Amino acid sequence: MPIGFQILDRALRVIRFLLPILGLLLVWELAVRTGLAQAGILPAPSTILARAVELLGLTGERAVLFGHILASLRRALVAFALAVAVGVPLGFLLGLSEEAQLWVSPILSLMLPLPAVAWTPILLVLFGPGDLTIVIVCFLGAVFPVLYSTMQGVRACGRQPVWVVRSMGGSGLDVLRRVLIPSSLPALITGFKLGMAHSWRTLVAAEMLAALTSGLGYMIFAARSYMDVSTMFVGVVCLAAIGMLIEHVLFGTLEHVTIHRWYARDAQTGGRQ
Amino acid sequence: MSNVEKILSDPVGETATLAPKPKITAEGAGIRFGSIVAVEDFTTVIREREFVSIIGPSGCGKSTLLYAIAGFLKTTSGVLKVDGKPIVKPGPDRGIVFQEFVLFPWRTVLRNITLGPEIAGLPRAEAEERARKWIRLTGLGGFENAYPATLSGGMKQRVAIARALTCEPDILLLDEPFGALDVQTKNYVMKDLQDLWIAASKTILMVTHSVQEATLMADRVLILGARPSRIVADVRIDLPHPRDPLDQRLGRYRQEVTEILSAEVDRAMKGERGQ
Lengths: 273, 275
Ligand SMILES: Nc1ncnc2c1ncn2[C@@H]1O[C@H](COP(=O)(O)OP(=O)(O)OP(=O)(O)O)[C@@H](O)[C@H]1O
Ligand SMILES: [Mg+2]
Fold this sequence. Notes:
By secondary structure, chain A is mainly α. Chain A has helices at 3-33, 45-56, 65-96, 98-111, 120-127, 131-156, 160-166, 172-210, 216-223, 229-257, 259-262, 264-269. Chain B has 275 residues and is an alpha/beta fold.
């Protein structure tokens, strides 16, 4: 395919993706304008946009949105990075050792469905409000999905691919580098996606409870005191949009250059060999 | 039956003049998993450049035996030796082709095949040089940059064979290498393998379910009995290579092997009912 055609194709797909969202916004706008919905509780998208522009401004008293976004992103990403740093190596160890798995699996199945926000009050008692508490809560939200997916990915590899490398005289490092890591990469990416999503979700609640001055969660919660519904909506929209961008742009690209290329044909037919 | 008896009384072909050196020696080798005896008392000698086929009922321990020779599993009794030395671990002197191919989906055809030389520490250019020879001989030319997911079963099989051969092993271990192929592709790959064997002069040990495959390709067919398995017959196929599948003499060998095999399966079935 020529490059120009590819770009066009991509642009069309982005438009196709945005179309239902634009439709929803249109219906919403009309509902508010015709008085079907109460503007005091559900402000029109145009009102929210105007507020967003105000908040986004580089100068002025209310130009605070960038600061909040950056604060939130920083916390969520630090927590996610920590979760990967802890979850991936631990996942490899557990995936390789049956014995360790028997011990850790029951604990994992308890921790996995537990909403990490529940830890916030306890951590508040320990560390007080602030970044440390928020990052730890987000870390707890992200680490278990990362750990679990990594473990599953390593386990699913099976012994024969390892044997292939062994029979070529490969060392333990060769097995790790050439078999275990690439073969568990699809599961790893799934784990990263889940981990980042959990980190992002947990963040909002944690910020509402534990943030002192910044973060989107803080912004939404603080706007409550002034009944400033538009600002709350700006916060909600930012959370949704950033979450979507991370999932689609960041991890989508990662998947595109790895898994989609390797399993190109099977992606169309369903299964994977 | 006379042929079989003759060979049974002389299992290692000691009377053959100028016999090549023993390559794989099995002395009462046995492998058990807990209480399950997968292989019991396996004794034979496979000589250099011999093409030996192993045939036997399902579950009689053929794959297990091959894995032990490859060095993936340990014998629990007896000894397995290669070049007179007991097998302790896998090594590049023994290449294996699994029934399920076991290609690496994240590597292209070329990168799958250069894996062995890469692990051996060869520079990339040299690794590719070596791989290209086997890509050409296995008819994979033009597919170097394809990912395994886009290949047909027959082509995956050939990649697996090329990958094993690029490591230049002395011994090639094949586990039901044609199981997943349709008849057309199978005949094609079988012909390829015979040519490769003649060109590369390797020792080949091939596990199969098919009497036709075994008799067409092998110098010797080892027939394993149902569990606990031992060698019940060692049939030498005394015909020059490459063989014509329609050869009358080949038909007689086929019949002989089939008879021994069905007698063994019958015995196994009766034994199971008797229990
Ligand atoms: N890891 C294992 N643990 C326990 N039992 C095993 C294991 N591997 C194989 N076995 C048992 O050993 C026996 C021989 O298995 P093997 O796979 O070698 O048979 P096979 O001759 O290759 O059969 P097939 O022709 O169906 O491939 C079987 O009864 C099997 O259940
Ligand atoms: Mg088998």
